[in-house]
Amino acid sequence: MDDLDHRNLSVKLNLWHLQDDAPGMVFWHPRGYALYRVLEDYVRRKMRGAGYAEVRTPQLLPREFWVRSGHWDKFGEHMFRVDDGEHTMALKPMSCPCHVQIFNKGLRSWRELPIRYAEFGACHRNEPSGSLHGIMRTRAFEQDDAHVFCREQDVEGEVARFMALLGEVYRDLGFPDYEVALATRPSVRAGDDATWDRLEAMLGNAARQCGLEARINPGEGAFYGPKLEFSLRDRLARSWQCGTVQLDAVLPQRLDASYVAPDGGRARPLMIHHAIFGSLGRMIAILLEHHGGVLPFWLSPDQVAVAPISRDQAGYGAEVLAAFEGAGIRAVAYDGADTISRRIVAAHDMAVPVMAIVGKREMREGRVTLRERDGLQADVPLVEAVSRLQARARPGAPAAETP
User: Fold this and answer.
1) Catalytic residue among 124, 273, 290, 367
2) How far apart are the C-alpha atoms of 244 and 230, rounded to whole Å?
3) In the prediction, which pLDDT does 402 show?
4) Which part of the chain is CATH 3.30.930.10?
5) Percent of the chain at pLDDT above 70?
6) How confident is the model at residue 55 (pLDDT cuts 50, 70, 90)?
7) Exactly one of 6, 31, 71, 96 is catalytic; which is it?
8) Strands 304-308 and 354-358, how do they pair?
9) Cα dihedral 303, 171, 238, 203 in deg (nearest 10)
10) pLDDT at position 233, please?
11) Is 147 a catalytic residue?
12) Using one digit for the tens of pLDDT, what is the confidence trace for 87-135?
């Protein structure tokens, strides 16, 4: 592994670890989980703003449920199973069938559609040990699942809505460009060819209406429907498949989803599956390797390290730390017995983007010296330091402000 491999970076930056006795299971350390929550909370706000209602569904469900959805035949060998003596249960490998259960509670009308659900779904898949790779491919992971229940005439608008959201998120993360592929029917699939013809044409048209020219990825669709796959290209020119939009007429039928149509009869909704990241862990790994471990200010687990030059400034250093934290800035004290130069090196090694250095003059005048990783410094009043860092903490904000 090279120094920019996310597995090495996780050790250097104290983010998470994996153990041989728990393969594919991630132990998130405080700094790693801080990064995890920043991404999760950011996407949660974006989804809520785009009209999605957040839900939460069970981890453990009966075998019969997965048989009805078709996932037992497709993924059964990769499910973790539990036998309670009477029933065979399985940990969910994905959340989509669970969202159908929520949709099915109550009589739905066409006037309610589209209905949009989102979930940070904790999923488990019994992946072969040889396929596991750091946190890019694990056995326990969290997906940014989203599903829309709609009519055919809603598909184009819903895909456009999601595409706008996906573009905003990827730009904020430092990926202004992405590649798109239309994955078509696999050899083993559910549904008849006429339905596949209709859904592939519908999804392809929706992509074109969004100005996307999707290359064809034959045979790589989900077993229940075609999908658009979105791949990011990192600074090393590597391509990573992340986001997806999938069009599905199978699960609503198998799980008996319906709504009251305008003519008073019952109709099946179409189901659109969405994900921006696919897996939060995988996106974190991509971001770390893309940025070489030095994340943008808004993503950094620790955004500013507060360092009093001597113990005489410890009290003022605590005030500075509290001011940053009160403004929503992730601050950490670097107030050990080491020299200030050693603490600067330590903060640099942990990829902390800014140091706030306080000495006698800063304490006397209510100021701080903001020091960037490249050595540039700005001596400013504490109030200004707080406002500067708050501005940089916005998603997609410039990496640094010129002193």
Assistant:
1) 273
2) 6
3) 38
4) 6-290
5) 98
6) very high
7) 96
8) parallel
9) 140
10) 81
11) yes
12) 899 999 999 999 999 999 989 999 999 999 999 999 999 988 888 999 9
Marked catalytic residue, from 92, 124, 139, 147 = 147
Q: Are 136 and 24 in contact (CB under 8 A)?
A: no
- Per-residue model confidence (pLDDT) at position 399: 62
Reported as half-sphere exposure (CB side, CA atoms, 13 A), residue 50 has a value of: 29
Name the pLDDT band for 398 (thresholds 50, 70, 90): low
Question: In CATH, what class is 6-290?
Answer: alpha beta
Contacts of residue 126, Cβ cutoff 8 Å, sequence gap at least 6: 77, 78, 79, 80, 139
Tokens describing residue 104: 């099915």
> What is d(CA 306, CA 90) in angstroms, rounded to the nearest whole number?
48
Alpha carbons 18 and 7: distance in angstroms, whole number: 9
How many angstroms separate the CA atoms of 295 and 99, rounded?
34
Average pLDDT, the chain: 91
C-alpha to C-alpha distance for 138 and 152, rounded to whole angstroms = 35
Domain with CATH 3.40.50.800 in the chain: 304-392
Question: How many residues does the structure list for the chain?
Answer: 403
* Coil/strand/helix, residue 299: coil
Can you give the pTM of this predicted structure? 0.92
Catalytic residue status for 98? no
Give the active site residue among 189, 227, 291, 367.
227
List 232's β-bridge partners, or say none: 178, 240
Which CATH superfamily groups domain 304-392? Anticodon-binding domain (3.40.50.800)
Q: Is 242 a catalytic residue?
A: no
Structure tokens at 62: 């009966």
Is 143 known to be catalytic?
yes
Torsion 29-282-208-167 (CA) sign = positive
Q: What is the pLDDT of residue 1?
A: 56
Which string of DSSP letters, residue by residue, matches 69-84? HTHHHHHGGGS-EEE-
The contacts of residue 192 (CB under 8 Å, 6+ apart) are: none
The one-letter amino acid at 388: R
The model's pLDDT over 271-294, given as tens digits with 9 standing for 90+, comes to 999 999 989 999 999 999 999 999
Among 46, 98, 139, 145, the one annotated catalytic: 145
139 catalytic per annotation: no
Residue 399 vs residues 299, 303, 402: alpha-carbon distances, Å: 10, 11, 10
CA 101 → CA 23, 64, 105, 306, distances in Å? 32, 14, 7, 50
Q: Which of 6, 46, 71, 125 is catalytic?
A: 125
